[in-house]
Structures are given as C-alpha cells and as structure tokens.
Design goal:
about 550 residues; Rossmann fold; 3 domains; twelve-stranded mixed beta sheet; six-stranded antiparallel beta barrel; 23 strands
Length: about 550
C-alpha cells in the first residue's frame, strides 16, 4: 500500500455496506482541497473500491475546544490540526475490482477494513472503470479534476428510456445535442426529435449570443427537418424536407382528452366526445365543428347529450380548428407521417420544428398524435419480427426526444398519453424516450423509475433533486453532489450507460466538436447480438 501514499486523502475509520463509509482526513491535507463528488479509490486488502465523496465534515476529539474557540485561529489551528481537530469525509463505494485484475469490475458486495487508504483517483483508475474497448462509446465530458475522457455506452443508452434534467439556463439543450450527436454518429438508433423551440435541426442562438450548428448542418442528409410552420422556418434560412399537416380526421378522442387543462374541458367532455365518435367515426371532429345551433339540438335529442355541454365543448374545440391553426386541415393524407416512419425505419433522423406554434397545446397535440402512429407501426414491426424470426424484419431502434416532458408524463396524464405507454412498455418494441425537463418532480414516479440513464445539470429544488434519484440505489448520498454542481457545463451522470455515477465537465459544443462529428461513423445497423429465438424468450419469458 506504500505506493498510494503520494496521493493519500485519508483512512477509513467506520461505515457499513448500506450507509457508506467514513474516513478521517490525512493531517497533511487541507479540507478545502476536498470536494463533494470527487472520484476516489479505496485500497482494500483484496479489492480496489471506486467511490465518490458524498459529504465533508469538521470534527473534534474534544468538544470543549468548540465552547471557547481561539481568536487567533491561524496560530492555534496548526497546533490542533490533525490531533484535536480534523476533517472527515463520507464515501459511497460504487464498484469494486479485485487487486491485480483490470477486467472484472463488480458491484460492491463488501467493504474495506479499518484504516484502508483512501486515495485520489489517477488516470489508470479512470481507465479501469471507463474503458472503451470493444464497444460503441461516446465522450460526454471529463472529470472535474483530471483531463481524462468519460464515455457513455451508446448501445446501452438507447436500449432504455433516459432523462436529461437541469434548471433553466444550465445547458439542457446542449447536453441533449451532445447525446443526439453521439447516437447519430455511432448509428445505434434513429432519432425523432420534437423541437418545440427550434433548437436542434438548424443553427440556434446560444445564451452568450453566438450561433451553434444544428444536427442537419453537422450530419447533412442523415437528418431531415420537418416543420409545422414552413414560412417561419424558411425565414430562419432552414432547409425544410417536409411540411407537416394534421387532419381533423386524424385526431382521436384520447388526443383531445390529453388537452383537458389547456382547453379547460369539463368533466363531461369525455362522454360527449365518445358519443360523437360513436356516431360519426373518424369524421366526428369535422362534423362537430361544422354544426350550427339546430344541428347541436338535433344531436342532443338523438344521443342524449346535454345541449349546453355540447355548445360549450364546441366553442372550446374551435381552438384547434383549421381557422385557428394553419397546420390543421379538415382532411389530409397520412403520407407525411408515413414518410417520417419510413425515414426513421431506414436509419434516418427526423427533427420536427414547431415554428411559431410553440405553445403547450400545439406541442402536446402534434407530438402525441404523431407518436401514436409511430408506436402502432413499431409494435406491428416487432410482432412481425417475432413471428418470422428474420433479422431483416427486426425494427430499427428508435429514440424519441421530448422537451417539457412533464406535460405528457405527469401523474394525472402519463397513463393516458402515448409517451407514458412508451416509457412503461415500448422497450420490448425497440422504442425509447429521451425525456428533457427542468422539473423532474412533476413527472410521474413510475415513469422516472423506468429511466435507465440520467444526465442531470444543477437543480436547486429539493423535490426535483429527490425525483432525479427516484428508484436509484444509494441516491441519498448523491443528492449533495447534485446540489453542488456549477450552473453551467457540469453534470452528474448515472445509470445504465455508465459503470458508476460520475460528475463531469461536459464536452464543449464548439468547432472542435464539429470537426469530430465530421468524421462520421461507417458502422451499419448491427445484427442483433441475440438470436431471434433468444430475443423472443427474453421478451416473453414463461
């Protein structure tokens, strides 16, 4: 253990597997050099324990010193330091590695003994944990105290739904761009991005006033840009591949119910909409909006609906009439959505800009409706693949990115929206979500528990911090780490795509990054690692 003395932080003095460890700070160490979230190594007798510092504490061996603290602290502190007064740190072991073995990382199943050395992590330690050989990895950033790349496993990232969280102004959009670029470069999934604020497809303005490139500019014809508002997009110099229109005949009752708060619908709206759909089938909304007062009275008499409720509902639904929203038509071909499905199936990526239609009502209506069609398509493709067991029928992995995700995934609505269904069940159908939000506490707990990887910038609200760690083992010790992040370009990454939680200085989205993205990967859509029968058995066990 003598080799570790040059970077010794302290020695383990107490702890448990469940609660974590406590270490006494070495007398030669200034407590101000230690920071929460620091990656350290505990050298045990048989194992290395890769750990995070979760708290820093001042201690004393004699409480009477604190009752009459010295005035000349600088003089007496040197006398008392390391004997009567000392620093203490709490540690959360995350992984263990048998001594002399750089391959067999294991979950922590034991703890080191008393007085085991706690040392600063070195480059080799980062390599042991974040090694990249043989897998598709993408650099997301670097540790705060070392110039070593930290990679995420993109194949593991896209196979589950994930979250990007952080309060306003902390760079969530840039984090999301980094992750999207990684998946596009590595060709591990197709991406459908609902771009509410027109930030991802083409160039957008950063908070410092500079303009940064969008996905279309970085990856060319690998990325298609669609728009609900072609005029607004073209005024920004955006090349549009398709204009998206929605027909009233495509809107179902469940799409309307999702907008209950935005349209201020009454409790009887569900029953009334169902009566209309039962009578007029897919034309229910067109026919309803065309009704005059006499037609409303006639329908009320034949259906048993309340005339007043019908009139009130019609007035509210006029907010989504073609006269109010240019992208809505009475009837329209489904070819645009079909085109999007075909592009995504063929490995392309689609960004849907909302232009001037950037309010919550437009976003929820359009995103839910398009995603519902896509879910049906991917479910059918998966069922075909499970029936034929041909690798060529296996659906392309798809990741759908949504901002302001709490609008779709809050406790009241996550069971109704298509996004809630995807978060709960669509992994087996090769569809996952990238959830982007500044208020994770507003997202349903069950949905949060399904997120595989969480990339989180600074959060201040205790409820949001608690939500990020919902369902995470050892999350209590990580809360202080999250609360201590800088407000820009720092993030805590934990979950399925990284071996252990890590705080990083996130990669800069700049010219150097653009050049790296220009070296596009040539990897084609990989064959599944499991045989068809093995995947069937995994999806539907006995």
């Amino acid at each position: 253990m003598a080799e570790s003395y040059h970077n010794l932080i302290g020695v383990v003095t107490s702890g448990s597997l469940l609660e974590g460890l406590t270490a006494r700070l070495d007398a030669q160490r200034s407590i101000e050099e230690i920071r929460v979230g620091q990656f350290v190594v505990i050298q045990g007798e048989k194992n290395k324990f890769f750990s995070l510092i979760t708290d820093i504490i001042l201690e004393t061996t004699n409480q009477t010193i604190l009752k009459d603290p010295p005035v000349d602290a600088s003089f007496l502190s040197e006398i008392l330091k390391g004997t009567a007064t000392y620093g203490k740190i709490t540690l959360q072991p995350q992984l263990m590695l048998p001594n002399g073995d750089s391959q067999r990382l294991q979950p922590v199943k034991t703890i080191p003994s008393h007085f085991a050395h706690v040392c600063e992590a070195e480059k080799d330690d980062f390599q042991d944990v974040f090694a990249t050989a043989g897998k598709l990895f993408f650099e997301i950033g670097r540790p705060l105290d070392m110039n070593v790349p930290v990679h995420i496993n993109l194949e593991r990232f896209v196979e589950r739904s994930n979250g990007v969280f952080g309060k306003s102004g902390t760079g969530k959009s840039f984090l999301t761009r980094l992750l999207l670029c990684g998946t596009i470069l590595a060709d591990v999934a197709s991406n459908l991005i609902f771009d509410m604020h027109n930030e991802y497809g083409w160039e957008s303005k950063a908070e410092d006033g500079t303009f940064v490139k969008g996905l279309r500019q970085l990856f060319g014809d690998q990325v298609y840009v669609c728009s609900l508002d072609v005029d607004a997009s073209r005024q920004r110099g955006v090349k549009i591949d398709q204009e998206v229109t929605i027909g009233l005949d495509q809107i179902e009752v469940e799409d309307i119910l999702l907008l209950q708060n935005e349209l201020n619908l009454s409790s009887t709206a569900t029953e009334t909409c169902n009566l209309l759909e039962e009578e007029y089938k897919e034309d229910w909304l067109v026919r309803f909006l065309q009704m005059d007062s006499d037609s409303l009275k006639e329908f009320a008499q034949t259906s048993g609906a309340h005339p007043g409720s019908l009139g009130a509902l019609r007035r509210k639904l006029k907010q989504i009439a073609p006269s109010k929203r240019s992208y809505i038509k009475e009837k329209t071909s489904t070819s645009v959505i079909d085109w999007m499905i075909k592009a995504l199936s063929n490995g392309k990526h689609v960004v849907l800009e909302f232009g001037r239609h950037d309010n919550v009502l437009d976003y929820m209506l359009v995103a839910n409706l398009i995603t519902r069609r896509i879910r049906e398509s991917w479910k059918d493709k998966t069922e075909t693949y499970l029936r034929t067991k041909k690798a060529t029928d296996r659906p392309r992995q798809l990741m759908i990115s949504i901002e302001e995700a709490h609008n779709f995934l809050n406790s009241a609505q996550s069971g109704q929206t298509i996004f809630g269904k995807i978060a709960r069940e669509m992994r087996k159908y090769h569809v996952t979500l990238l959830v982007v939000d500044q208020r994770p506490s507003s997202i349903d707990d069950e949905v949060l528990s399904q997120l595989g990887t969480r990339v989180t910038a600074l959060l201040n609200d205790d409820r949001d911090i608690d939500a990020v760690f919902a369902g995470v083992s050892g999350g209590r010790g990580l809360k202080a780490i999250l609360a201590s992040l800088d407000s820009r370009q720092q993030a805590l990454i934990l979950g399925h795509a990284v071996p252990m939680p890590i705080v990083v200085q996130t990669r800069s989205y700049d010219e150097e990054f653009y050049k790296a993205m220009g070296k596009r990967g040539t990897k084609s859509f990989a064959e599944p690692e499991l045989s068809a029968q093995e995947e069937v058995d995994e999806l539907f066990p006995d």
